[in-house]
């Protein structure tokens, strides 16, 4: 290891593990605190966008496809409750259907092989300034001083309030997500997206042939399978799909009270100047319909890690984050507002279906 000060990473999801690999590859001492167990199921659409290939290659993980054998996703079909349907073919390389459990376990192995220390079941309890230029991270594993910190703790965290993130406010718009797996079943397209009032329900295969079902719904819906069945009573195409899938193979997982607004990108600890760099969903959650969340996590984690080698990490990361993501967040946010209103889809679907170049342009605009 080099004599550079250690890099601390809070959160061992995609962004945190990408950051860990990128730093460890360059000889940096790295310590990752993950509150849970790596390799567990998570609430996620599990659609890995093609631009992630560049980051996986840079991280020495380009063999992911041969190692994990994810499902290849190219054909997409959107269904409205009124009968409108829009069929699309994703341009370029296919996307990949892969579970967070498999992908994160793969990345954690690579991070450890590169020399990073990855602590599981070790939530960060507190962060305290250690003048003149360090920050103490307190956990059940002890107290560790770091000189740079990547914060990649996902959609919600007990650190939100201490870090004064906007999502700590209960007044912000709220969504609920539901994730379930069903037995292998033939689909009409590689990815099916069912639009319902205030949300949508995505269906696609993952690496072991199972069918992942992931719903995003506005408000305070119960994160249970019955909620999807209730929507199906007013959506014939969704009703047919749920009937063909049958009951989930395991209890669905749910996540409530999260939103899509900007959180933080980079700031300095006011006491010590230690750079705090936010990556993945901790920086900003991209609207789920884009299928770009996992790719953004990988890229932002890698960019944050590389920025810590700069003389001015905060400036370097802020600029890199803006270049990589500003346009796609803008376009994705505008389209998301339309998708949350199914009557708009019923009106526009026939027109969009006759404009494949427009579809390609919008798809690429939500990518890197």
UniProtKB/TrEMBL annotation:
Xref: Gene3D superfamilies: FAD/NAD(P)-binding domain (3.50.50.60)
FAD-binding domain sequence ranges: 9-298
GO molecular function: FAD binding
Pfam family, one: FAD_binding_3
Listed name of the protein: NAD(P)-binding protein
Lineage, highest ranks first: Bacteria, Pseudomonadati, Myxococcota, Polyangia, Polyangiales
């Amino acid at each position: 290891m080099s004599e550079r000060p250690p890099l601390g990473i809070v959160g061992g999801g995609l962004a945190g593990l990408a950051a860990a690999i990128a730093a460890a590859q360059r000889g940096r001492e790295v310590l990752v605190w993950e509150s849970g167990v790596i390799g567990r199921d998570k609430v996620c659409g599990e659609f890995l966008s093609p631009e992630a290939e560049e980051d996986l290659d840079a991280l020495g993980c380009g063999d992911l496809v041969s190692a994990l054998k994810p499902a290849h996703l190219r054909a997409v079909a959107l269904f409205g409750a009124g009968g409108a349907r829009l069929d699309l073919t994703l341009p370029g390389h296919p996307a990949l259907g892969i579970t967070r459990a498999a992908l994160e376990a793969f990345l954690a192995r690579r991070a450890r092989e590169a020399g990073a220390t990855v602590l599981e079941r070790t939530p960060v309890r507190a962060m305290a300034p250690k003048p003149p230029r360090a920050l103490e991270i307190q956990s059940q594993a002890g107290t560790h001083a770091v000189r740079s910190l990547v914060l990649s703790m996902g959609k919600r965290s007990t650190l939100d309030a201490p870090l004064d993130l906007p999502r700590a406010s209960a007044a912000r718009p709220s969504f609920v997500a539901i994730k379930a797996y069903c037995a292998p079943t033939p689909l009409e397209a590689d990815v099916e997206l069912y639009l319902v009032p205030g949300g949508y329900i995505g269906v696609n295969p993952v690496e072991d042939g199972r069918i992942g079902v992931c719903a995003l719904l506005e408000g305070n819906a119960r994160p249970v399978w019955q909620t999807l069945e209730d929507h199906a009573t007013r959506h014939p195409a969704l009703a047919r799909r749920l009937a063909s899938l049958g009951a989930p193979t395991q209890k669905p997982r749910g996540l409530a009270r999260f939103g899509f607004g900007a959180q933080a990108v980079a700031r300095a600890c006011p006491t010590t100047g230690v750079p705090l760099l936010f990556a993945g969903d901790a920086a900003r959650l991209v609207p789920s319909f884009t299928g770009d969340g996992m790719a953004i996590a990988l890229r932002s984690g890698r960019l944050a890690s590389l920025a810590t080698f700069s003389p001015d990490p905060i400036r370097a990361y802020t600029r890199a984050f803006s270049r990589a993501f500003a346009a796609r967040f803008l376009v994705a946010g505008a389209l998301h507002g339309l998708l949350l209103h199914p009557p708009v889809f019923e009106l526009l679907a026939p027109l969009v279906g006759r404009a494949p170049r427009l579809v390609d342009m919008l798809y690429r605009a939500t990518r890197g």
